[in-house]
Design goal:
- The complex is a heterodimer.
- By secondary structure, chain A is of the alpha+beta class.
- Chain A has 4 domains: 1-75, no CATH class; 134-360, no CATH class; 364-531 and 737-865, no CATH class; 550-720, no CATH class.
- Helices cover 50% and strands 16% of the residues of chain A.
- Chain A is built from 27 helices and 29 strands.
- In chain A, strands 5, 6, 7, 8, 9, 10, 11 and 12 form an 8-stranded mixed β-sheet that branches. In chain A, strands 20, 22, 23, 24, 25, 26 and 27 form a 7-stranded mixed β-sheet that branches.
- In chain A, helix 4 (77-95) packs across helix 5 (97-125).
- Chain A is globular.
- Chain A starts with 11 loop residues before the first helix and ends with a helix.
- By secondary structure, chain B is of the alpha+beta class.
- Chain B has a single domain (8-101), classed as Arc Repressor Mutant, subunit A (Orthogonal Bundle).
- In chain B, 55% of the residues lie in helices and 14% in strands.
- Chain B contains 4 helices and 2 strands, in the order H-H-H-E-E-H.
- A two-stranded antiparallel sheet of chain B has the order 1-2.
- Chain B starts with 7 loop residues before the first helix and ends in a 7-residue tail after the last helix.
- Classes of the chains: A alpha+beta, B alpha+beta.
- Chain A binds chain B through residues 9, 26, 28-37, 39-40, 56-57, 60-66, and chain B through 25-27, 30, 42-45, 47-48, 51-52, 55, 63, 66-67, 69-71, 73-76.
């Protein structure tokens, strides 16, 4: 490869590298040697290879004898400058303690707040990501067209997984997994005389191949091979056998809710972490369900989830198109379309509107990300403002340095060093702050953040901190280093018009952000308050809910329950307490069935005293009562339903419930069943003679005694399960836990943002007052009042804050309105709540500035004028 | 200067310098040694040995001519000092004495 007419050189940066570290006096010789060797190599090898060899040789030159010394006459200059700059910065910190402290407090608070948020976001993002086949792991979603739009959920036929494997070549493997709370997922497992109440799932044999739940015993390929195989969690195994050793092959028994079968322990998996959305304590081979539950062998049954892995290199988009119509030719499945969603995205992107993915928790993640960014911006602005405001102090230094020939580059380096050093100290302070706040943060978010910090995470956080330092430092460095030495030293340069504008703009921006925070916080907390205290149409105070599964004894139990002292009333139903009731359906008809049998109603099955226990207002007719026979053939409807049905004098008339004719016996006021996310729905209540879920209204006094009595009564009926009772008030609150958490976080971060903004303002005010002290003295001598001076000093700040209010209010109104769109029942946005946000920002600014201003205004003019 | 030791590799480089005479500069030494040892050496290893020995007083050096092949950079020609010759001689003597003293078994 000898090209004589064209000079081929080694890679430029290898040469550069060589020149940076080799001692100057050796450089010519060694560079020549290297070049010679390179030219020789060019004759033997390709250009690429020769360059690579050259680079390797450069690295091998890193020997103590050949490398420049770090100190001494020929030291690396950059290092010396760095040392010099650090010393200068430290001296500066010592000399101007106030501004250093303000910078430090602002930056470290800001950093710790945003790093906490970063930890939280990182935790949210890592959910379900631990599966090794994550990139190819999908869950099947089913889209069901309804009159009010497409309803999407994860339920799919149990037969789907097998059919997909057989008919779709792209599918590597697919498993059927029991729905959470599906058939036989909760019951009692016993081994010997140990019986444990537990919750688990059923899954096809490939389950542990597709998902990477680590196994302590057993092989992923074989643990669910046989129909009777069961895999236990570590803690369940410990609870049953007291050990995880030597229990493979042992038999455990499932009670009647677990198919009443003996299972053979075939493996043990490690307890699931909170980074797994699926939570279960045992896995049984799904074949057990196929063998015992007939209806799941039909195509029209939804009751399971289907998960699959695609073969490597399969395009998910194309597969989505293919799977879309997979169900259509199956019996009684002519409407339902399928799609796949990456398994690990289901946590953050769980919401579907009309069949299209529309966010989910990712909304909160983004929101918090924006909050963190805003806080960092506010903190950086502080730094910029204070540094540029102090320009006058540094002007002479810059002037003298420039006269002596210091380049602008090294001045920028000096100021950047100062910024980064401040950030670095702030990082140390911030990590201390974080360690103090983390427990509280974990309490609020219900997470365990910061417990296993990986190196990557720490590096990322350091990177965030350093980038903040860089951003905060860039503007001041360039601003300070641009002064012309002649102007500075001849004293002609005061301060230019332009930089004042920038500083004012920055302060305004800070306050825009603060006002956004304040109004955002007000809207969020009001909405949460509204949700938690909203009138649901029923009285949820003092009602406890528990599950009682022995059907046979229910009547006598309820009788005695009602006679227990402290109990006011009791009722029963299926499907959870009133807070958890869901499910709606069509099938009611009246008049012309073609017109209305598709209309959706909430249709809970409830028992006697349902209306009475919950204090729902009866408008017309009567409620279900044991005094009447054949209550199964009656219905109670709510106002909304009555309006839809639209028949006059509906009480006493009959409508069709499927094929049965049923009489409407009463109308009640509207009440809410599920959360306030959903609009008030028409509801038709059907009667059921017994149900698992018991709700008991108790006296407000001596509640724990009453509950103890109820428990004693419950235990006297030989229950299989211990009593677990909750107040439905708490259940209701739990529905809004996400809002609650965001609300609490919003509160704290609002305070942080405001504190940081105020710190900056405080610093600026102090600085302004100091610079204008002579002006104030002269004005006072000439007869200015204290009030006039205060006006003079705070006028500028007030203008900035007012400008911020003008910008921020429309913005915050738009943002609040958009957020409230998520709720069917939102608060009304009142103009005055934004006015309050603006006014409080102004007030906070005044208080902050006021202290400094007042101090300056009341100064004795003789004091500040006498030294000239 | 305390009695300076000469490392094994340094000794080889030093002897090569003596052998090459006027031609003793970095790359030529490298080539010569590579041929004799039949292994590849890096520029760094040769250079560091040269610099160390120069510091210890075994070698002196001066700039030679520049060639196009070296990108216009001058060579540095090394030559051994009388002290180096003496040390080499001493080492050779020590070695031959030791060889002579060895029982005649290990050479097969």
């Amino acid at each position: 490869m000898n090209k004589k007419n064209q000079h081929i050189a080694p890679t430029r940066w290898s040469i550069k590298l060589l020149r940076t570290f080799v001692k100057k006096e050796f450089l010519e010789e060694i560079e020549g040697d290297m070049e010679e060797v390179f030219q020789e190599n060019l004759e033997k090898y390709s250009v690429k290879k020769a360059r690579e060899l050259y680079h390797r040789e450069v690295i091998k030159l890193l020997r103590p004898v050949l490398v420049k010394k770090l100190s001494g006459d020929l030291k690396l200059n950059q290092l010396g400058m760095l040392k010099h700059n650090i010393i200068l910065s430290l001296r500066g910190f010592k000399r101007y303690k106030t501004s250093f402290l303000i910078n430090l407090i602002g930056l470290s608070t800001g950093l710790s707040a945003s790093l906490l948020i970063f930890l939280w976001i990182n935790d949210e993002m890592s959910v379900d990501k631990f599966h090794k086949k994550d990139a190819r792991l999908y869950q099947v979603m089913q889209h069901d067209p309804r009159p009010d739009g497409i309803e999407t959920d994860t339920g799919s036929p149990a037969l789907l997984a097998k059919a997909l494997i057989a008919e779709m070549p792209e599918v590597e493997s697919a498993v059927t997994v029991n729905n959470r709370g599906g058939v036989g997922s909760h019951g009692i497992i016993s081994a010997g005389d140990q019986s444990i109440e537990t919750t688990g799932t059923y899954a096809s044999s490939d389950f542990f191949n597709i998902f990477s739940y680590p196994l302590l015993a057993g092989q992923p390929e074989s643990v669910l091979k046989e129909q009777a195989d069961i895999v236990l969690s570590e803690s369940l195994a410990l609870a049953l056998f007291g050990s995880t050793e030597d229990i493979i092959g042992k038999l455990v028994k499932g009670n009647r809710h677990l198919m009443n079968k003996d299972y053979r322990v075939s493996g043990i998996f490690k307890d699931l972490t909170r980074h797994s959305t699926a939570q279960f304590d045992f896995v049984i081979n799904y074949e057990t369900v196929f063998a015992n539950v007939d209806w799941l062998n039909e195509w029209n049954a939804d009751g399971t989830n289907t998960y699959l892995t695609l073969k490597e290199g399969t395009n998910a988009q194309e597969f989505n198109e293919k799977i879309k119509n997979f169900l259509l030719d199956k019996p009684s499945r002519e409407n339902d379309q399928l799609s796949i969603q990456q398994y690990s995205s289901r946590y953050l992107y769980g919401d579907y509107v009309n069949g299209v993915q529309s966010g989910g928790r990712i909304g909160y993640v983004r929101l918090m990300g924006i909050v963190a960014l805003f806080i960092l911006i506010v903190a950086s602005i502080n730094f910029m403002n204070l540094s540029t405001a102090q320009a006058s102090r540094k002007m002479k230094e810059v002037g003298v340095k420039k006269v002596f020939g210091v380049s602008r580059k090294s001045l920028v380096a000096q100021f950047m060093t100062e910024a980064i050093l401040t950030t670095f100290i702030a990082v140390i302070a911030a990590s201390f702050l974080m360690s103090l706040v983390l427990p509280a943060m974990n309490e609020i978010t219900g997470k365990q953040l910061g417990q296993n910090l990986s190196l990557n995470l720490v590096l990322m956080m350091l990177a965030i901190a350093m980038v903040t330092g860089l951003i905060a430092g860039i503007y001041p460095s360039f601003y300070l280093s641009q002064f012309k030495p002649i102007a500075i030293l001849s004293g002609k340069l005061k301060s230019t018009f332009g930089d004042l504008w920038i500083r004012k703009g920055l302060v305004t921006m800070q306050f825009v952000i603060s006002i956004l925070f304040i109004s955002g916080f007000m809207v969020v907390s009001k909405q949460i308050d509204f949700l938690q205290n909203a009138d649901m149409g029923y009285n949820r105070d003092n009602i406890i809910h528990f599950v009682m599964r022995n059907r046979a004894d229910q009547k006598p139990f309820l009788e005695s329950l009602k006679n227990t002292p402290g109990v006011i009333n009791a009722t029963y139903q299926y499907g959870g307490s009133i807070v958890g009731l869901n499910g709606s359906g069509s099938g009611f008809s009246w008049g012309d069935p073609m017109q209305n049998e598709e209309i959706q109603f909430r249709r809970p099955h409830v028992g006697y005293d349902f209306i009475e226990t919950l204090g729902i207002e009866l408008l017309e007719g009567r409620t279900f009562s044991p005094e009447f026979a054949n209550e199964q053939n009656t219905l109670i409807i709510n106002e909304a339903a009555a309006k839809i049905i639209g028949l006059d004098d509906i009480v006493g008339r009959t409508i069709m419930d499927g094929d049965d004719e049923k009489q409407v016996i009463g109308i009640v006021k509207n009440f809410k069943i599920k959360s306030l996310y959903e609009p008030m729905e028409p509801c038709i209540m059907r009667f059921v003679p017994q149900g698992w879920d018991i709700m008991v209204k108790i006296e407000p006094e001596a509640q724990s005694e009453t509950i103890n009595k109820i428990e004693a009564l419950y235990n006297s009926f030989n229950p299989e399960y211990p009593l677990v009772s909750t107040f439905i008030d708490d259940e209701h609150r739990a529905v809004y836990i996400a809002e609650q958490r965001v609300g609490t976080l919003a509160k704290y971060f609002t305070v942080v943002a405001i504190i940081i903004s105020c710190l900056g303002l405080f610093g600026l005010a102090a600085f302004t007052a100091e610079r204008k002290i002579k002006e104030i003295g002269i004005r006072k001598i000439l007869g200015s009042s204290v009030f006039e001076i205060i006006k003079l000093l705070s006028g500028d700040f007030s203008k900035m804050v007012l400008a911020a209010i003008l910008i921020a209010l429309p913005l915050s109104y738009i943002m609040a309105a958009r957020w409230l769109e998520n709720f069917a029942y939102g608060i009304e946005l009142k103009w005055w709540s934004f006015a309050i946000a603006g006014a409080s920002a102004l007030l906070i600014a005044w208080i902050t500035v006021g202290f400094q201003t007042f101090k300056a205004a009341t100064v004795n003019p003789a004091e500040c004028l006498r030294n000239e | 200067m305390k009695k300076t030791k000469l490392g094994e590799f340094e000794e080889l480089v030093l002897m090569t310098v003596v052998v090459l005479q006027e031609e003793a500069y970095g790359v030529e030494i490298k080539r010569e040694l590579e041929d004799r040892l039949s292994e590849t050496l890096s520029v760094g290893s040769i250079q560091s040995a040269l610099k160390r020995m120069e510091e210890k007083g075994f070698l002196t050096s001066e700039f030679g001519e520049a060639t196009q092949k070296r990108g216009g950079k001058r060579k540095r020609i090394y030559s051994a000092t009388p002290y180096a010759h003496r040390v080499l001689k001493e080492m050779k003597d020590v070695r031959s004495q030791l060889w002579a003293a060895m029982p005649n078994v290990a050479t097969s």
